[in-house]
Amino acid sequence: MSYEHILVAVDLTEECDPVIKKAMALALAGHSKLSLVHIVEPMAMAFGGDVPMDLSQLQQQQFDQAKEKLEALKRKYPDVKTGDSHLTYGQPRQEIHNLAKEHHVDLIVVGSHGRHGLSLLLGSTANDVLHGAPCDVLAVRLIKRPEK
Ligand code: AMP
User: Ranges for the UspA domain (predicted)?
Assistant: First the structure.
């Protein structure tokens, strides 16, 4: 059984390489369409929604930087061009689920840090995306490199 449309969620850090590579291998084996998504989280959300200053310029810069990074990723992995790439504002879980439904995605691929301790309590995007997902979700284990 293979997937028709795989959606890879990327945080645009260097950690997205193993996540994309795993998704690409699956897409190649199953002749699946492969799409990318990055969600820019509204800054006001990070500050708890009540910020006494105008963040719109900073927010625009954040969006433009994300756009450049996403374009660079598409150049690095030309196979990803078989699908679409999405860049939107919002909350990752909600936006990824909505996109998956709209674009008939049957597998979402995310990275997972295998957290423990306090960070486990705080939760992770992988966990968040898994809950209520409209399709299968693959969590690619990200192994932390030892610090030099
Ligand atoms: P985190 O739990 O935030 O460390 O992220 C784990 C994984 O969730 C990443 O490897 C990505 O696959 C996905 N992810 C995190 N943040 C975003 C984002 N803003 N947009 C899309 N995917 C994300």
Answer: 3-141
Residue 9 binned pLDDT confidence (cut-offs 50, 70, 90): very high
Nearest CA to ligand 1 atom 5: 125
107 lines ligand 1 (CB under 6 A): no
> What are the structural domains, with CATH classification, of the chain?
5-141 (3.40.50.620)
Atom 16 of ligand 1, residue of closest alpha carbon: 11
Residue 15, ligand 1, Cβ within 6 A: yes
Answer left, alpha or beta for residue 90, where phi above 0 means left and psi between -120 and 50 means alpha: left
